[in-house]
Amino acid sequence: MSYWDSQTMGLIYLVYGLAFFVLGVVALMLSKRNTTWYHFAPQLSLLAAFGQQFPI
């Protein structure tokens, strides 16, 4: 693998992991809200856990 390929793949993995991390943070914040139109709020904590553990 060339130097350019390894740098590009590193950037792709960084963005990929950051996307799941942000997904976990947003899902955790939404699961803490007490609103009635989030009928799927109990499952958001599971999504938050997945989003926080997947990039590691």
Give me a quick take on this structure.
With 56 residues, this protein is an all-alpha fold. It has helices spanning 3-32, 41-53.
Structural class: mainly alpha
Separation of the first and last Cα atoms: 24 Å
Count of folded domains: 1
Oligomer: single chain
Q: What ranges have pLDDT less than 50 throughout 5 or more consecutive residues?
A: none
The total beta strand count reads: 0
Name the helix and strand elements from N-terminus to C-terminus, one letter apiece.
HH
Biggest pleated sheet: none
Number of helices: 2
Radius of gyration, Cα only, in angstroms? 16 Å
Strand coverage percent: under 5%
Helix amount, in percent? over 70%
Mean pLDDT: 78
Shape: rod-shaped
What does it look like?
The chain is 77% helix and 0% strand. The protein is mostly helical and 56 residues long. Helix 1 packs antiparallel against helix 2. The model has no long low-confidence stretch (mean pLDDT 78).
List keywords for this structure.
mainly alpha; single chain; 77% helix
